[in-house]
UniProtKB/TrEMBL annotation:
Location in the cell: Cell membrane
Top-level taxonomic group: Bacteria
Coiled-coil spans in chain: 295-343
Membrane topology of this protein: Multi-pass membrane protein
Residue ranges crossing the lipid bilayer per the database entry: 55-73
UniProt-listed InterPro entries: Bact_polysacc_biosynth/exp (IPR050445), CobQ/CobB/MinD/ParA_Nub-bd_dom (IPR002586), LPS_length_determ_N (IPR003856), P-loop_NTPase (IPR027417), Wzc-like_C (IPR005702)
Ranges where the Polysaccharide chain length determinant N-terminal domain occurs: 45-126
Protein name: Polysaccharide biosynthesis tyrosine autokinase
SUPFAM superfamilies membership: P-loop containing nucleoside triphosphate hydrolases
Length: 776
């Protein structure tokens, strides 16, 4: 086949989109993995996502079902017994919220059944510590159960027991699970009995303590009342005050009797001193009995406050806020009484003085006749007034003592009544529950149930696996197809190169493009060569820079493949490996003579460019006819060893001089640049190249790496080459691009075609080791 026919066929293949993953237009139903995803997934997309991770999903389901099935088949049978308890509610208060209170009581009763203290009581009552059905290493029956072991056994019992109650119901279900059916029913039936015994002990102890406290308080109040009454009696005896002495009515009666007696005695003397007697009487008139409605009201209020303080003193201390508030009210009322009493006395005094003034005027006329009677009357009045004032002064203290005694009596009576009521309520109130439906010995175990458990494990693991699969898809930021690259970066994909191994990785001459031109790899590589050739300007040599985000993406292999494809298409092509820090073993010079200069020699200025080129390459343009372009050999310029100071050698001016000299002899100059994220050499070398290709590794290079690389370059990139594509796996994933249908055109290619591996082949460790070696 002639050159023109081959070139024409390759051009038609590349234009038709076969095997080189051209730029894909955005589709509403296409996959958008790792990039912009649609807001909703269709059923076909969901199926594709599941197919991509079918091995992981199958492994999750398989191992989950296997583990659950193994556990179910090896588990000890577990039996379940349920006892039903009815709660009896004793409440005759007749409150409108009876239903709510009863439900709260049922909930409280259920909480008691769930408590650790009751579980410990059941362990002790049934002697579960010595029961081999409950513990693996039972204690002897005579052994003492320590608190630590008791707590541990109670926790185990609580774990195997569940207590439930339904809303608006007074029934409680106690369900016990055990490997022994007899033990399960025994424990379930023991719970109400243990609670009844436990509650009886608590009730007796509580009632005894409350009754003793009430009796002690009642005795204390009785003693205080006796002391207060004794203090009143002693005070009256000490001051010679009869019962009722000191009151306003008593003093008025005494004054009237004394006045009449004095008047009778004075009448015999004379009426001459009447005026003087009246004036003297005015000065000695007592106001102790003066009162007013407000003063009487204040006295009653003070009595009520004092009685209330005595009642509250039984329940609160002196520093309690209520007690302190009462003391403040008593002090305020006492002050108000003093003010009112002073006002009443002043008013009475004024009134008496006014009356005396009127009487004095009348009495002066009779002064002479009443003189002798007035003298006798004054003596009598002085005696009576002194006694009245003494009684008045003592009345204040006497009233205080009486109030204290009355408060003590009231407190004692109230405490006696309250004590009887509390004792009666303690005996009649409370919550009681009784066993309505005893737990029968179960006949059938509740577990294991292999069928239902296996089905549940299958469904659960399937759901979990789907969540994991979709989580992987949502978080996967690796690059898998051309459409993804276009949506993320707006870049064309020039080719999706299959995986290449063996000798084809080490030499352009061994590349399948030249060695096996009818192979799948050769067709894809020629498609890459055609895409690059379309970028060239007619009649001008083309310079292409090839770089990648990081190491391991295979840019050296892509460089070698593009060199072989260009040579196969009849172009004079040469590779300049400017990755001086790590010269690739793949890009070894085609003529690796022992003493021949390399790139380092040229860049350091030791030799000229013509000393590095093969002799044939310098003569081909002059000696060969256009029809013999297929005889061109691939040429590689590289360094044999890493440069010691690559920064000093990498000068753009020197590189441009080399490229200018090479453009005189070659049509295509391919520059193999270092990884973009490793050094900034690629950014500098872009100024010397006409076009730039970014190599990404299929399924490994991430979106972030490419984005960071483009940010470092800061210049447009012409396209992307996806390298090391697993065609069979890519087709299985169903991205919808041309690679998915490569097997439909298998008859057009020679050699072995990539075939889809079976699930056990994809799981083989040898495959993982092979991938690890390729990544290294």
């Amino acid at each position: 086949m002639g050159q023109n026919a081959v070139v024409e066929d390759l051009f038609m293949l590349s234009q038709s989109g076969m095997l080189n993953a051209p730029l894909l237009e955005a589709r509403s139903d296409g996959p958008m993995d790792g990039g912009s995803r649609p807001s909703s997934l269709s059923a076909r997309q969901v199926i594709k996502i599941i197919r991509r991770h079918e091995l992981l999903l199958g492994a999750i389901v398989f191992f989950a079902v296997l583990i659950v099935l193994a556990v179910q088949l090896t588990s000890t049978p577990v039996y379940q017994a349920t006892a039903t308890v009815q709660v009896e509610l004793n409440d005759d208060s007749g409150s409108p919220d009876m239903a709510a209170r009863n439900q709260q009581r049922v909930a409280n009763e259920a909480g008691i059944y769930r408590s650790r203290s009751l579980a410990e009581r059941v362990v002790q009552d049934l002697k579960l510590a010595s029961d081999p059905r409950f513990v693996e290493n039972p204690l002897p029956a005579s052994a003492i159960l320590d608190n630590r072991r008791l707590s541990r056994l109670a926790g185990r019992l609580m774990y195997s027991t569940s207590v439930s109650s339904q809303k608006e119901s007074d029934f409680i279900d106690i369900t016990v699970r055990s490997t022994s059916p007899d033990l399960a029913s025994e424990i379930a039936n023991q719970y109400p009995a243990s609670l009844a015994a436990y509650r009886a002990v608590l009730r007796d102890d509580r009632q005894g303590k409350i009754a003793a406290q009430l009796d002690d308080e009642r005795g204390r109040l009785a003693t205080e009342a006796h002391k207060a009454e004794q203090a009143v009696a002693d005070f009256r005896r000490q001051h010679q005050m009869l019962t009722g002495a000191g009151g306003s009515e008593d003093y008025a009666q005494i004054n009237r009797i004394a006045t009449e007696a004095a008047s009778a005695a004075a009448m015999r003397a004379a009426q001459s001193a009447r005026a003087a007697g009246i004036a003297s009487a005015v000065n000695n008139i007592t106001t102790a009995g003066a009162t007013s409605p407000l003063l009487d009201q204040q006295r009653r209020q003070l009595d009520d406050l004092t009685r209330t303080r005595s009642e509250l003193a039984m329940m609160y201390g002196a520093e309690h806020p209520k007690m302190r508030g009462l003391e403040a009210q008593i002090a305020e009322t006492t002050g108000s009484m003093r003010q009112e009493q002073a006002r009443v006395i002043a008013a009475a005094t004024t009134q008496a003085q006014n009356a005396a003034a009127r009487e004095a005027g009348l009495a002066r006329s009779e002064a002479a006749s009443a003189a002798s009677r007035a003298g006798q009357l004054e003596g009598t009045l002085r005696s009576i007034t002194g006694k009245a004032f003494a009684n008045t002064a003592a009345t204040v203290e006497l009233n205080a003592l009486e109030r204290t005694a009355e408060a003590a009596r009231s407190a004692y009576v109230a405490m006696s009544t309250r004590a009887e009521q509390v004792k009666t309520s303690l005996a009649a109130s409370g919550i009681h529950s009784r066993l309505m439906s005893p737990a029968a010995v179960p006949q059938d175990p509740i577990s294991p149930r292999p069928k239902s458990a296996t089905f549940a494990a299958f469904v659960g693991s399937l759901i979990l696996g789907l969540l994991i699969v979709f989580g992987i898809e949502l978080t996967d930021n690796r690059l898998w197809n051309a459409e993804q690259i276009y949506h993320q970066f707006g870049l064309r994909t020039f080719a999706m190169l299959p995986e290449l191994d063996g000798d084809a990785l080490m030499s352009a001459k061994a590349n399948p493009v030249l060695k096996d031109p009818q192979s799948l790899f050769a067709e894809v590589a020629r498609g890459l060569g055609s895409e690059v050739a379309e970028l060239a300007q007619p009649g001008k040599a083309q310079t292409v820079l090839i770089t990648s985000p990081i190491t391991g993406d295979g840019k050296s292999t892509v460089t070698l493949t593009l060199l072989a494809a260009a040579v196969a298409m009849g172009r004079r092509a040469i590779v300049i490996d400017l990755d001086l820090r790590r010269p690739s073993d793949v890009l070894r010079p085609t003529d690796d003579g022992g003493g021949k200069p390399d790139l380092i020699d040229y860049l350091s200025g030791a030799v000229d460019a013509r000393h590095m080129l093969p002799p044939l390459a310098l003569t081909q343009r002059q000696d060969l006819e256009p029809s013999e372009v297929t005889t061109y050999e691939p040429v590689v310029l590289s360094a044999r060893e890493p440069a010691r100071n690559p920064v000093a050698l990498m000068r753009l001016r020197k590189v441009n001089e080399l490229l200018d000299q090479l453009r005189e002899h070659y049509d295509l100059l391919i520059i193999n640049a270092p990884p973009t994220l490793a050094t900034r050499d690629s950014r500098m070398l872009m100024d010397a190249a006409d076009h730039t290709l970014m190599v990404v590794r299929w399924g490994r290079t991430t979106i972030e790496q490419v984005r960071a690389a483009l940010q470092v370059l800061q210049k447009p990139v012409d396209g992307v080459v996806i390298n090391r594509v697993d065609y069979a796996e890519h087709a299985r994933r169903g991205y919808g691009d041309p690679v998915q249908f490569y097997m439909d055109s298998a008859e057009y290619f020679s050699g072995e075609m990539p075939t889809r591996r079976r699930w056990y082949e994809r799981m083989a460790p040898s495959r993982w080791r092979e991938r690890a070696e390729h990544m290294a």
